[in-house]
Amino acid sequence: RAKSHGKGLIEVYTRQLADQVLARAALERDIHAAVAGRHFEVHYQPIVRVDQPVIAGAEALLRWRREGELISPGVFIPMCEEMNFIQDITVLLLDAVARDVAAWRAEGQTPHVSVNISAVQFSDPSFHERLAHILAARSMPREQLGLEITETAIMSKPELAANTLRHLREQGHTVSIDDFGTGYSSLRNLQRFPLTTLKIDRQFISGLGSRETRAIVKASIAMAKGLGLSVVAEGVERPEELDFLRDCRCDFYQGFLFSPAVTAQDFLALLLRQQSGTLVQEETFLLPP
Ligand code: C2E
Ligand code: MG
Ligand code: MG
Ligand code: MG
């Protein structure tokens, strides 16, 4: 009896594994089709000044709607990296950003936009040249585009990274270190690499209830500013988090407290309402995450 019970478990387990493999195969097939059919959207999350509710720019975030269901970039970006699609998908992203930036410009709005760059792309020695080429072909001003790179991407090939970062700076881009504090960060990296911005990871912001985390965040902001970097806090959801960041003289924040990532049209609407002075901060709290 025990034996047949064990066998049944193995069957269940095997079936689950098979289901997982099939689901993954289907997802891979759909990513293929989505890349080919350009079925991705770009949404923009406002990046806002801490000292006053003024939108300074946005982070471009990829969105994939698969049969009505939104798949998180946390799932499909790693798959695109494995499947060697990351280059293609970044070109799609930059196409969309360049188109949106042109549309906003026609309305007199020129926000700074930052995009996320994968470690794989960052280890390509001609990355900055490819980027310059893509932007020139789409008449996108370089100064308006920022790049977000993780510490892990920089540290996998530090020499190469230093070179690429220097080129990107010379090309007029801002360069942020993304998810700061989650990798094997060394404070020395901040000094060693030509960065412009430090983005404090969301996990530190959601942890601000703890005294130790408050100490870490406060010290990180002070240190970054001492090194001449600007600081963005990620994932700000509560008014008291924003109050703390204001006390620490953090420069910018993004998070559901102000707004989640929204469509290009909705982002333009926010910019236009801000310009006409009709954007009240309480109102943005009502936006759904
Ligand atoms: P990230 O660069 O750290 O982006 C911030 C993530 O935090 C976004 O998730 C954003 O929607 C989410 N977020 C922002 N504010 C809040 C908040 O107040 N609370 C909470 N709980 N979450 C908040 P998203 O869009 O799911 O992106 C996840 C990650 O996927 C990004 O993390 C980035 O690493 C990657 N990613 C997104 N788009 C691209 C892309 O175009 N290229 C590459 N290489 N990676 C991308
Ligand atoms: Mg980012
Ligand atoms: Mg981040
Ligand atoms: Mg993050």
What does this structure look like?
With 289 residues, the protein is of the alpha/beta class. It is 53% helix and 18% strand. The termini are far apart. The structure holds ligand C2E and magnesium ion (MG) (3 copies). The site of one magnesium ion has 4 residues, from strand 6. It comes from Fundidesulfovibrio magnetotacticus. This is Putative signaling protein.
Summarize the topology.
Layout: H1 2-37, E1 40-49, E2 55-66, E3 69-71, H2 73-82, H3 86-106, E4 112-116, H4 119-122, H5 127-137, E5 145-150, H6 151-156, H7 158-170, E6 174-180, H8 187-192, E7 197-200, H9 202-206, H10 211-226, E8 230-233, H11 239-247, E9 252-253, H12 264-275, H13 281-284
Parallel strand pairs: 2-4, 4-5, 5-6, 6-7, 7-8, 8-9
Antiparallel strand pairs: 1-2, 1-9, 2-3
Ligand C2E is lined by residues 45, 61-62, 72-74, 77, 93, 115-118, 148, 178-179, 202, 234-237, 254-256, 261.
